[in-house]
Amino acid sequence: MRSYGQYCSIARALDVVGDRWTLLIVRELLLRGPCRFTDLKNGLPGVAANLLSTRLKELEAAGLITREDAPPPVATALYALSESGLELEPVLKALGLWGLRFMTVERPDDAFQAQWLAYAPAWFTTDADPDAPPAVIQLVAHDESAVIELRGGQVHTRLGRAADADLVLDGPPRAVLGLLGGMLDVERAGRLGLVIRGRRDLLKRLRPFVQDPARTQDQAVQ
Prior knowledge:
Elements: H1 9-17, H2 22-32, H3 37-43, H4 49-61, E1 65-69, E2 77-81, H5 83-86, H6 89-99, H7 114-124, E3 125-127, E4 135-141, E5 144-151, E6 154-159, E7 167-170, H8 173-180, H9 186-191, E8 195-198, H10 202-205, E9 206-208
Parallel strand pairs: 4-7
Antiparallel strand pairs: 1-2, 3-9, 4-5, 5-6, 7-8
């Protein structure tokens, strides 16, 4: 692990988490909980096994993750975030919210996984009508599925499909996440291939933290 060699808390933090793949490993452990090495490898398309092993050792040495041998039938090491590692959650939320402005372009070779579809609504939206009855929204993007449940004034998400959704958003990741993140309005998301079925009024209830689609319009590929 290289160091910037600066007596500065930002530099010291980047000494620990600033290397490539490090924060994405933290992301996966936040979203999935304790993981096997193979789980992390599958959740990080493009990472080499030897580099992942190196990053895990560095994170363990820095006290951000723990490694424990799981009992049978798992019979392998499980990696989990330590208390110090869990404290990075608001950092990743802030970084992800800031990064929404760069999500207007979906590159053809971009990987996409279901857990990334699920965390975005939980982190980047709020229930604008907390006193309303519970509602269920089904998300489908590139054959990946996630469910949003609005209840008690909170936004809950999980992987999979709902038996009886009140609203379905089905389309390319850029269209689905662009609408949820406030980067696209309904009309522009529709032009990108988003299909909306069911109660459209729930889109007003599921309010993105970013509410000005025009702010990123000049970056979008029409």
